[in-house]
């Protein structure tokens, strides 16, 4: 850990002591948003009971947050150039805190949904630029270690959210889950104002037409995935609308003076291949998490609590693996590490797909641990490769693309499972795990293609540092 805050002559980024405070800001800001997502899931039955709504409607407490957050990531990343990342991150934390207070005081379902949507917008403002702030704060020689630390923080949030939510609900009502965010969010906002580095604002306009097309494209996509996941045919119409908006959005980006998404990012093959690998990997993750939830409970007969424990090895192993993988990525070819991780993840998914009805808890646990090992070994090196492959002035845009790709991939994976359940295409939910293996295989092929490019870039960077 101390290596993260070491300082050498010629380092870019912030000095060690200032870096510590900035990292504390990022950790707190990430945790309150990530924990909120997983913590609220366990409160849905209580919310449905107290607000006198069906459990199906209560799911929109989660969906509204995810919908607005996912659709706003590119927009917020582009806004950071006009407002600066410091101001956007601060604004996101303040909005999230105020919206959390509103959600805690909500007595009507519609009011709760409104504040959940505002929470999603605040979360998008922080999550969309998180990786680019890590690049801004840390010296280039520690970028991999920083990405590994960031992945560990996210894993901690996902692992601890359900347990924290259960503990709070054991002694208090569900509004307190939202109320907890308020003091933590305000503390993070004060730290952000003091610790995050200032930077000049970009002069010029904003691509409003591109922002509207992007929002329409992403909202219709997420709604289409939700509809298809429930077997609703009108999801196909929404998907067609999303594709049409996507075509118009790309056409707009080619001629916009200040594009929301600079398409030049994808002319860098290391970035383009890394985004392909990331998207396919998160498709596999989204698919597996939902498929296994059904498989464990419907086919193996485990309780919801037992099912939750069976998922625990995945984030726990990421917590242990990601920091080490990030540090290694600063010394060896990050594409090689990421490819190795994808191979392990694919092996773990194949092992899960081969689980039989007589499988014990231990049989499932070691397979989930293997998946966590592979995912942890992939994520931090891949993020390092993505961020280091593009110019610093495009870091915020790249960060927004990374966040959006992750969200789209997870949504598509969930929709695939829902479609399988609704149509009965495959014999069992477990069989969908082989689709996850296929997604991992495609991700591995994309990752392997960039190996020589990544190695050449690593050697060039090493020569540059020696020259300096």
From TrEMBL:
Species name: Bisbaumannia pacifica
Pfam families in UniProt: MFS_1
A GO cellular-component term linked to this record: membrane
Keyword Transmembrane: yes
Subcellular locations according to the entry: Membrane
Gene Ontology terms for molecular function: transmembrane transporter activity
Name of protein: MFS transporter
Limits of the Major facilitator superfamily (MFS) profile domain: 22-455
Keywords, sorted A to Z: Membrane, Transmembrane, Transmembrane helix, Transport
Record field: transmembrane: 21-44, 56-76, 88-106, 112-130, 142-164, 176-196, 208-227, 233-251, 271-296, 308-328, 335-354, 433-451
Superkingdom classification of source: Bacteria
């Amino acid at each position: 850990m101390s290596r993260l805050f070491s300082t050498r002559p010629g380092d870019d980024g912030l000095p060690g002591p200032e870096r510590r405070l900035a990292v504390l800001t990022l950790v707190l800001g990430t945790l309150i948003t990530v924990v909120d997502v997983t913590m609220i899931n366990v409160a849905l039955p209580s919310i449905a009971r107290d607000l006198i709504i069906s459990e199906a409607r209560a799911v929109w407490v989660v969906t509204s947050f995810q919908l607005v957050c996912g659709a706003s990531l590119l927009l917020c990343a582009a806004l950071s150039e006009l407002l600066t990342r410091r101001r956007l991150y601060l604004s996101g934390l303040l909005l999230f805190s105020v919206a959390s207070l509103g959600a805690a005081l909500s007595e009507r379902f519609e009011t709760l949904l409104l504040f959940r949507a505002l929470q999603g917008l605040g979360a998008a403002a922080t999550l969309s630029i998180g990786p680019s702030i890590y690049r801004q704060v840390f010296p280039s020689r520690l970028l991999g270690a920083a990405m590994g630390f960031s992945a560990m923080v996210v894993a901690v949030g996902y692992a601890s959210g359900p347990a924290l939510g259960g503990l709070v609900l054991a002694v208090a009502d569900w509004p307190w889950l939202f109320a907890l965010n308020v003091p933590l969010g305000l503390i993070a906002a004060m730290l952000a104002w003091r610790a995050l580095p200032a930077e000049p604002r970009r002069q010029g306009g904003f691509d409003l037409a591109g922002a509207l097309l992007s929002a329409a494209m992403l909202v219709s996509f997420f709604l289409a995935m939700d509809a298809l996941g429930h077997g609703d045919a009108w999801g196909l119409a929404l998907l067609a609308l999303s594709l049409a908006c996507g075509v118009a959005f790309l056409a707009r980006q080619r001629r916009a003076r200040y594009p929301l998404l600079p398409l030049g990012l994808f002319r860098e093959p290391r970035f383009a291949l890394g985004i392909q690998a990331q998207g396919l990997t998160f498709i596999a993750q989204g698919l597996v998490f939902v498929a296994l939830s059904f498989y464990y409970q419907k086919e193996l007969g485990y309780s919801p609590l037992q099912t939750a424990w069976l998922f625990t090895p995945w984030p726990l192993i990421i917590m242990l693996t990601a920091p080490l993988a990030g540090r290694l990525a600063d010394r060896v070819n990050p594409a090689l590490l990421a490819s190795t991780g994808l191979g392990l993840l694919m092996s773990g998914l194949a092992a899960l797909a081969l689980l039989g009805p007589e499988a014990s808890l231990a049989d499932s646990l070691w397979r989930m641990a293997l998946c966590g090992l592979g995912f942890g070994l992939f994520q931090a090196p891949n993020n390092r490769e993505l961020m280091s492959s593009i110019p610093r002035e495009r870091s915020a845009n790249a960060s927004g693309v990374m966040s959006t790709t992750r969200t789209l991939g997870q949504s598509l994976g969930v929709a695939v499972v829902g479609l399988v359940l609704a149509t009965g295409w495959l014999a069992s939910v477990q069989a969908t795990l082989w689709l996850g293996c296929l997604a991992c295989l495609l991700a591995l092929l994309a990752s392997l293609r960039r190996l020589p490019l990544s190695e050449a870039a690593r050697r060039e960077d090493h020569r540059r540092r020696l020259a300096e």
